[in-house]
From TrEMBL, chain A:
Coiled coil: none annotated. It comes from the Bacteria. This is ABC-2 type transport system permease protein. Keywords: Membrane, Transmembrane, Transmembrane helix. The chain crosses the membrane at residues 12-30, 71-97, 118-145, 157-181, 193-212, 241-261. One of its GO terms (molecular function) is ABC-type transporter activity. It holds the Pfam family ABC2_membrane_2. One of its GO terms (cellular component) is plasma membrane.
Automatic annotation (TrEMBL), chain B:
GO terms for cellular component: plasma membrane. This is ABC-2 type transport system permease protein. One of its GO terms (molecular function) is ABC-type transporter activity. It comes from Papillibacter cinnamivorans DSM 12816. Signal peptide: none annotated. It comes from the Bacteria. The chain crosses the membrane at residues 12-33, 68-88, 122-145, 157-180, 187-205, 238-257. Keywords: Membrane, Transmembrane, Transmembrane helix.
């Protein structure tokens, strides 16, 4: 329990910074939305006529009514994914690798707890961090979205589903971070590997977006797992991809326990 | 000049990796061009009916999709994004690496002023970024020429390619500054990616609401390829903003670094 407390405390400051960044992002986006919805009707009409090839390259929603708060908010999913992937991936890579980097590995791992247990407690601490960030994201989103919601029907549930999708993806990147830390020589290499993963899968999702024929590669890019339009408007959170995210995260966790269990720790 | 040489040596591998990443993205976009080109004529016909203001707001006033330069102008932002990550990462690394590896006492007990140490590091940083841009340009050019048809718009390609450098300067300055603030910066990549993506997201929001008022906030809107296409030059105001940020934050970083209490 001491380890859990210690980890939560050690990450509290960075978690606070992440929460503030998220709140700033939602606030700034919504302020822009407020200005936009008053003048947006003409833009909408033109957007509706845009040819789909151009829409794909511009990366904007197809035929979407951007003056509706639900449509506008659905854009945020990409932003959440980008920031969430960085948060979870880096947290995972560093929470494990930092002991060797800071030369505290001998201190921690000579305590009378099993190494696996230490790893699992760190995993738990990281998941709690992600939960807090997602909870803040969810609550702040609901407050802002409801403020501009004129449709009559509450959007709280779809927003919750969007953040749930974010949570699954973050677990996936967290797992990847842990695995990188267990496999890599140093904290530096681990965090570089996770950066490559995030940038690479993001660019892959862009490439798939441009050329629909490459849809089958979507399974390789977590940024393609959840279609935000389905989540937001049909309230459909793909159970297949949710399960896949969890499965991949669990596999990474198992791999980490296995690899880290026989790691030769440098003090 | 030993510090200068050492910095170059330390960053040459990441430099090659990131340049490869930029080239991979570039050639992937080139390959996808054929799948878009089929629709391009249709797109151009539809666009001809749009009011000019609307097209200007979306950044495709003079863009023709059936032209390779026009197509790439939409996608170059992703290559700039990769470059920005490298610029920020290297900017953060150079002044803070000794703190992480606990070699500050080794470096700073040399008979050199701190200003000199920082200058050599800055010089290495600028050279690394310049080399990356030249490498990218030289290796991407054949691809561009092979697909660009009879009359390649070379000037546009030069402007686009080196816009990476300009954006990198912005992030390098911010990186230098952020790296000297904490007593010991423990990890480079989390700060790098978080800051770069935040600026990138601000640009995405600006783009989707067609708002130019906040474009000074993010370097990703300073040298947008679609603007370069119609203007055929960098916009002086944005160029000034970009360089101002670089010089201001670099100067601040130097000032702090010279006075900083270093814990070995």
């Amino acid at each position: 329990m001491n380890l859990l407390k210690r980890e939560l405390k050690a990450n509290a400051k960075s978690l606070l910074a992440w929460c503030l960044a998220m709140v700033f992002l939602i606030w700034a986006g919504m302020v822009k939305y407020d200005a936009f919805r008053k003048t947006g009707d003409e833009v909408n009409q033109m957007l509706a006529q845009l040819p789909s090839a151009l829409v794909r390259i511009l990366g904007i929603g197809n035929g979407a009514d951007l003056t509706s708060v639900a449509v506008f908010y659905s854009m945020f999913f990409l932003f959440f994914m980008l920031l969430g992937a960085v948060h979870a991936g880096m947290l995972g890579a560093l929470i494990l690798a930092k002991e060797e980097r800071d030369k505290t590995a001998d201190f921690l791992f000579s305590k009378p707890i099993r190494r696996n247990r230490a790893v699992l407690i760190k995993l738990l601490a990281a998941v709690l961090n992600i939960l807090v960030l997602d909870l803040v994201t969810c609550l702040v989103s609901i407050v802002f979205v409801e403020r501009y919601n004129t449709a009559g029907q509450s959007l709280a549930y779809p927003v919750f589903l969007v953040v749930a999708a974010l949570f699954f993806l973050q677990l996936l990147f967290l797992g990847a971070g842990f695995l990188a830390a267990a496999a890599a020589k140093s904290a530096k290499t681990a965090s570089s590997a996770v950066s490559v993963l995030i940038l690479g899968t993001y660019l892959l999702s862009v490439v798939i977006h441009i050329n629909g024929d490459l849809e089958y590669l979507g399974i390789l890019s977590p940024f393609r797992y959840f279609d935000v339009n389905a989540v937001m408007f049909d309230r459909y959170l793909s159970p297949g991809y949710s399960a896949l995210s969890l499965l991949l995260a669990a596999t990474c966790a198992a791999g980490t326990v296995k690899l880290f269990g026989r790691r030769n720790l440098r003090g | 000049m030993n510090i200068f040489r050492q910095e170059l040596k330390m960053h040459v591998r990441p430099l090659l990796f990131y340049t490869l990443g930029m080239l991979a993205a570039f050639y992937a976009f080139l390959l996808l061009y054929d799948s878009i080109a089929a629709d391009a004529a249709l797109v151009d016909a539809v666009l001809a009916n749009f009011p000019k203001e609307f097209k200007a707001a979306f950044g495709f006033a003079d863009v023709s999709l059936s032209d390779l330069g026009g197509y790439l102008s939409f996608l170059f932002a992703y290559i700039v994004l990769i470059g920005a990550v490298f610029g920020m990462k290297t900017g953060i690394s150079v002044l803070s690496e000794e703190g992480r590896t606990r070699t500050s006492d080794f470096l700073l007990s040399k008979p050199l002023r701190r200003g000199r140490v920082a200058s050599e590091k800055l010089l290495a940083l600028c050279l690394l970024l310049a080399v990356q841009n030249v490498l990218f340009f030289a290796l991407a050019l054949p691809g561009y020429l092979s697909k660009a048809g009879e009359e390649p718009n070379l000037k546009l390609f030069v402007l686009m390619s080196f816009s990476v450098f300009m954006v990198q300067l912005f992030f390098a300055g911010i990186g230098l500054f952020l790296s000297v603030l904490p007593r010991r910066l423990k990890a480079v990549m989390p700060v790098t990616l978080a800051v770069v993506f935040l600026f990138y997201i601000v640009e995405l929001i600006n783009e989707s609401v067609l708002d130019k008022t906040l474009s000074y906030l993010t370097p990703f809107s300073y040298f947008k390829a679609s603007e370069l296409l119609s203007r055929a030059a960098y916009d002086g105001r944005y160029l000034a903003a970009d360089l101002a940020v670089f010089f201001l934050f670099t100067a601040l970083a130097f000032w702090i670094y010279e006075k900083k209490d270093i814990h070995a």
